[in-house]
Amino acid sequence: MAAAQTYAPENSARCTNSVHLLVDRLSAGYGASPIVRNVSMTAAQGALTILVGPNGCGKSTLLKTMARVLKPMAGAATLDGLSVHNTPSRQLAQKLALLPQGPIAPEGLTVHELVAQGRFPHQTLARQWSREDSRAVTAAVAAANVTDFAQRRVDSLSGGQRQRCWIAMVLAQETDVILLDEPTTFLDLKVQIDVMTLLKHIAHDQNRTLVIVLHDLNIAAMFGDKIVMMRDGEIIDQGHPNDVITRENLSLVFDLDAHVITDPLSGRPVCLPVLKQVAA
Questions:
Q1: Roughly how many angstroms between the first and final C-alpha of the chain, as a whole number?
Q2: Are 218 and 60 in contact (CB under 8 A)?
Q3: What φ, ψ does residue 34 adopt, rounded to 5°?
Q4: Is 103 in contact with 216 (CB distance < 8 Å)?
Q5: How many angstroms separate the CA atoms of 144 and 137, rounded?
Q6: Tens-digit pLDDT string for the chain (280 aa)
Q7: 3-class secondary structure for the chain?
Q8: Which residues contact 71 (CB under 8 A, 6 or more apart)?
C-alpha cells in the first residue's frame, strides 16, 4: 500500500494550526460523472462543521470522499497535511472515523460487542485485545450514555438508543476526526437534540473535528460552528450560521421562501417558512 504523502493545497495560507481537515478543489462521483465539482472547504479542530443542502446536492458524496470511501476525480482531501487517499488504511482509521447513514449491526450483537469493534484499527496480529482497548470501550460507553443497556442486543433497542451505540463505537475508535452522515434521521425531536448535544460535547470538550451531514436547517443552525451550504454539487456559501443561513441563501439553494429570525437566547438564526395562500 502506498505510503502517506503530503499534498500542497491551492492556497497554503488556509492551512492554519486550527485547520484539521481540508478539501481542496475536489471533484468526485460515481462512474465517469462527477456529483461534487471543484469544492474547497476546511473543518477546524474542536468544532462542528455541518453540511446542508437539498437532496442529491452532493453532501454524502463529499463526506464519503473525505472518508476515502470514494476516490476523487480531481483535487484532494487532506488530514494534517497528508492526503487521505494516499494514507495506509489502518493508519487513517486511527485518525478518522466514519458513521454512515443507517448502519446495521449484525443480528444478535450486544452493545458492548458493537462498541468494541471500534478498536479494530488499533489491533494487529501481535497486539490483540488489551487493557487500553478495555479502557477505550468503557470510556466510550459512558460518554455516549449507553452503560445501562451495554449488555443488551443492539436490535432490541429504540432508534435513539441504537444511534448512541453507533456513536459510542466511533468514540471507541479514538480518532481526532469523526464524519457522520445524517446521525439524527428518523429520530424524534428530543432525541435529535440529545444526539446533537452529545456531538457538540465531543467536538468542543474533547477537541475533536466533527463533520456532519444534516437535513434540518434549524438543528444545523443551533449546533453548527460552521455551515457549508451546497447545491448541485457545489458549495454556495460557508461560514458561521448567522452569515450562511439567510433568506437569500434559502431562496437560492432550497428554492424556499422563508423568514430568518434571530433566537433571542442563543443569537442563532431560525428559519420560518412562509406559508403560501391556497386558493379557495
A1: 67
A2: no
A3: -75, 140
A4: no
A5: 11
A6: 333 333 333 333 333 345 579 999 999 999 888 999 999 999 999 999 999 999 999 999 999 999 999 999 999 999 988 999 999 988 899 999 999 988 888 889 999 999 999 999 887 766 788 889 999 999 999 988 899 999 999 999 998 899 999 999 999 999 999 999 999 888 889 989 999 999 999 999 999 999 999 999 999 999 999 999 999 999 999 999 999 999 999 999 999 999 999 999 999 999 999 987 766 6
A7: CCCCCECCCCCHHHCCCCEEEEEEEEEEEECCEEEEEEEEEEEECCEEEEEECCCCCCHHHHHHHHCCCCCCCEEEEEECCEEHHHCCHHHHHCCEEEECCCCCCCCCCEHHHHHHHHHHHHCCCCCCCCHHHHHHHHHHHHHCCCHHHCCCEHHHCCHHHHHHHHHHHHHHCCCCEEEEECCCCCCCHHHHHHHHHHHHHHHHHHCCEEEEECCCHHHHHHHCCEEEEEECCEEEEEECHHHHCCHHHHHHHHCCCEEEEECCCCCCEEEEECCCCCCC
A8: 28, 65, 85
